[in-house]
Design goal:
Endonuclease Iii, domain 2; 0% strand; globular; binds iron/sulfur cluster
Length: 308
């Protein structure tokens, strides 16, 4: 199963269409990595241009990147707060064109007032709009979440179905939203192709595809299915924290030796460290209620809406 969704906001990828295999690369600084996995940053940069690498070499490099990222982000997880499939479905719809943090700061009030699909399906739209206003596009999002709640009540007995073909029949629920729910609330392996995923896999030259569906297929073919969900988390976390759209922090990147796009961003280690976001830059992650493993690793929860 392959997953696609849009998440973080406002990050355009100016280099997304470029294939920038450089003939000469600077070796990244040894102490560049801010995370647990620092050894990789001291290795030599990839010696063979990926444009000329074999299929076998590509698979090896891709899987090695995933392994390195798993060591950097051992606690990577979905960054939308949810306690059941219904909450994840609604939160995913709300996450379009805004950050997961903003959604997490908004949904507690929504789910406190409308805890079930029955409650939300019968809600006064104006009252829902007021709650969702901070998420942007609040009128359209209000229509979507009330509409999908009505669909759940009318067709599925108020339960979120665990099948793709059922989920996509709900108003406002496309494949990408359906796969997020299946992957993270039902435990079905899936690749989440959001804006970060698209940008990073092209930078890594895992695929030259630009269409999300084709990216799903191409990247999915590089990994065993059992890796898909965690792979998605690793890539998205790296995109949010280090390999940003406009200014990737190459000088602080633990997988620089494996990346053909090294040098697209800031290579000076000290300057690169200042570009890091969320907990890697000293700020909390996006969840108000992060998993225990994240807290045990020193992560901190995001502040609720309105907190100083
Ligand atoms: S931060 Fe730079 S070196 Fe690291 S993955 Fe992104 S482009 Fe490659």
């Amino acid at each position: 199963m392959v997953v696609r969704r849009d998440s973080a906001v406002g990050e355009q990828d100016p280099g997304s269409g470029k294939k920038t295999v450089k003939t000469e690369k600077k070796v990244p600084a040894k102490k560049a990595a801010p995370a647990k996995k620092t050894a990789a940053a001291s290795a030599a940069v990839a010696k063979k241009p990926p444009s000329g690498e074999s299929r076998t070499a590509l698979v090896r490099r891709a899987r090695r990147i995933n392994r390195e990222l798993a060591e950097v982000y051992p606690y990577a997880h979905p960054e939308l707060d949810f306690e059941n499939p219904f909450q994840l479905l609604v939160a995913t719809v709300l996450s379009a064109q805004t950050t997961d943090l903003r959604v997490n700061q908004t949904t507690p009030a929504l789910f406190a007032k409308y805890p079930t699909p029955e409650d939300l399906s019968a809600a006064n739209p104006e009252e829902v709009e007021e709650i969702l206003r901070p998420c942007g596009f609040f009128r359209a999002k209000t229509r979507s979440v009330i509409g999908l709640s009505q669909g759940l009540v009318e067709r599925f007995g108020g339960e979120v179905p665990g099948r793709l073909e059922d989920l996509v029949k709900l108003p406002g629920v496309g494949r990408k939203t359906a796969f997020v729910v299946l992957g993270n609330a039902f435990g079905r392996p899936g690749i989440t192709v959001d804006t970060h995923f698209q940008r990073l896999v092209r930078r890594w030259q895992w695929t030259e595809e630009t269409d999300p569906d084709k990216i799903e297929a191409a990247v999915g073919a590089l990994f065993p299915k059992s890796d898909w969900t965690d792979l998605s988390h690793h890539v998205i976390w790296h995109g949010r924290r280090i390999c940003h759209a406009r200014k990737p922090a190459c000088g602080a990147c633990p997988i620089a030796p494996l990346c053909p796009a090294y040098g697209e961003g800031e290579t000076d280690p000290e300057k690169a460290k200042k570009l890091l976001k969320y907990e890697k830059g000293g700020f909390p992650g996006q969840r108000l209620k992060p998993p225990q493993a994240y807290l045990d690793a020193g992560g901190t929860a995001a502040p609720p809406l309105g907190a100083a």
